[in-house]
Write a structure and sequence with these properties.
single chain; alpha/beta; 13 helices; about 55% helix; binds dihydroflavine-adenine dinucleotide
């Protein structure tokens, strides 16, 4: 119930207007968000690099409602690629298609994605298409496939959510074309007729899809690139230790090298687990969000873990 309310609040414009300019909320969100500027995010990327951890940058923003803003968001992503290239910073970028116009005009979104991918290919920067709520799943997959097949396959990947019933079939279809996949549980509240209502089923499906991805990685001999910029085919994106242990065990059983998969986590969450995996020799990539549009991202993090909400509220009371 609380989770439902928070997910509703993450999408409510009135709540965003109320919270986004509130200094206290901004300071609390700083646990999950690298800062408001690209400079802030680059500093986090460089610190993580020192610890042997790779990154994917996310310039926060979603559900853009005008063509001008969609074009502007795409241009900003191109500017990130330029900066990474100019300064020799090794990092991927995560992009939400609703940020570059999917909801306003799918043709414009396609044009924007192609512009981003052109630049990404020139500079060898990897782009991951985040997955949003289920109203956008099919459109996101269709556009991903279309652009992937225009010669960008090595530099573009997609996200699949184990919470959706359709995901096993989607993964089989994507793997048939050797697509790179980040597997996560899914951050959105979805209706029961399309998504598992029980967490244990989401977890079981996560493990099942993990096996499909790791088998494919073994078959292809897929590996993370030497400097870490380009991920291998499977990215296991979770802070759930049981899912991580399952993936490690299955990889060992089938004889998949540690560099044939990577673990991904969000900035500020389970740093102990991030470090332990690096020490064991697994590639680890951290999702580093930054920007002024931190509100929906922050509230989704509160929804995932009630303890975060209590932390927020208790700090508020103590002020
Ligand atoms: P679960 O929620 O079961 O949590 C397991 C444990 O992890 C908890 O017990 C706690 O210890 C820790 N934990 C999890 N969330 C926490 C939080 N917010 N604060 C503190 N501790 C926490 N989703 C999506 O729909 N589309 C996408 O594109 C992406 N992209 C993405 C990229 C990356 C790199 C990651 C790690 C995650 C995503 N997600 C996502 C989010 C994902 O779907 C999911 O909501 C979160 O990862 C939380 O689920 P867990 O797998 O961590 O498991």
């Amino acid at each position: 119930m609380l989770k439902l309310l928070l997910i509703y609040l993450s999408q409510a414009q009135w709540a965003r207007n109320l919270i986004q300019n509130w200094g206290f909320a901004k300071r609390t969100a700083a646990r999950f968000v690298a800062g408001e500027t690209l400079d802030d995010a680059v500093a986090v990327v460089q610190d993580l690099r020192q610890e042997g951890i790779c990154t994917t940058l996310d310039h926060l923003g979603e559900h853009v409602t005008s063509p001008e803003n969609a074009r502007k968001a795409a241009e900003e992503i191109i500017q990130i690629i330029n900066r990474l290239s100019r300064e020799g910073i090794c990092s991927g970028i995560s992009v939400k298609l609703s940020q570059i116009g999917l909801v306003v005009d799918p043709d414009l979104c396609e044009e924007n994605l192609r512009r981003i991918m052109n630049r990404a290919l020139q500079e060898k920067v990897y782009i991951r298409i985040d997955m949003e709520d289920s109203t956008l799943t099919q459109m996101t997959l269709d556009l991903f496939r279309k652009v992937r097949d225009e010669g960008y396959a090595e530099y573009i990947g997609i996200v699949i959510q184990s919470s959706l019933y359709r995901s096993v079939q989607d993964v089989k279809d994507l793997l048939a074309n050797d697509s790179k996949i980040r597997l996560c549980k899914g951050a959105y509240k979805e209706p029961r007729d399309i998504a598992f209502p029980r967490k244990s089923d989401v977890d079981e499906n996560f493990d099942l899809i993990t096996c499909l991805m790791l088998d494919k990685s073994l078959e292809l001999g897929s590996q993370v690139s030497q400097e870490g910029g380009i991920p291998p085919l499977p990215a296991i994106a979770t802070h759930d230790q049981k899912r991580v242990e399952f993936a490690c065990k299955y990889a060992q059983e089938i004889g998949l090298d540690k560099t044939g998969l990577e673990f991904q986590m969000l900035h500020g969450i389970r740093e102990d687990l991030q470090t332990a995996l690096v020490q064991e020799g697994y590639p680890v990539r951290i999702y580093v969000p930054y920007g002024q549009e931190w509100y929906p991202y922050f509230v989704r993090r509160l929804a995932e873990r009630p303890a975060n909400l209590w932390f927020f509220l208790s700090n508020l009371i103590r002020r």
